Amino acid sequence: MSLLNAFTLTTFETDNKLSPTVHRRRKLVAKIDEQILYATDSSYQPTKQTWHKDSEGREQRVTVPKRVRRWWTVRSDGVVLLTVRYGSRALELAKGKNAIVVNSINELPTVLKRLSEAVDKGEFDKLLEEQASYGKRVNTPKT
Fold first, then answer.
1. pTM for the whole thing?
2. How far apart are CA 36 and CA 108, in angstroms?
């Protein structure tokens, strides 16, 4: 026990609990990074682990492709319209506007990287707060 007496001992407590704002930022940045991969690599296919029963009824964990919803669409004139989605809805970036105009598909990864940096800096915090409170308003029973 002479070794333990040589150390200063204390109670272990973590202080790395994330605030809801930081959690929302990280979640959106992860989704933007996924869209960057989707835009730059045509063979990108994310996967997830699920449980499936085989023919004999035993459950096995298998890797299956994960559905990724593309955030952009290419118009007939080559202009790309990019939405930023949080949850199942596109964020309203300005009053009545929920899409970013990108001149070509080649510029899309650059725009997505700039969006990711803006989210990290906290520029989307107000929009994310509104989006997070939207679900609470919809699901709250009326009195």
1. 0.74
2. 8
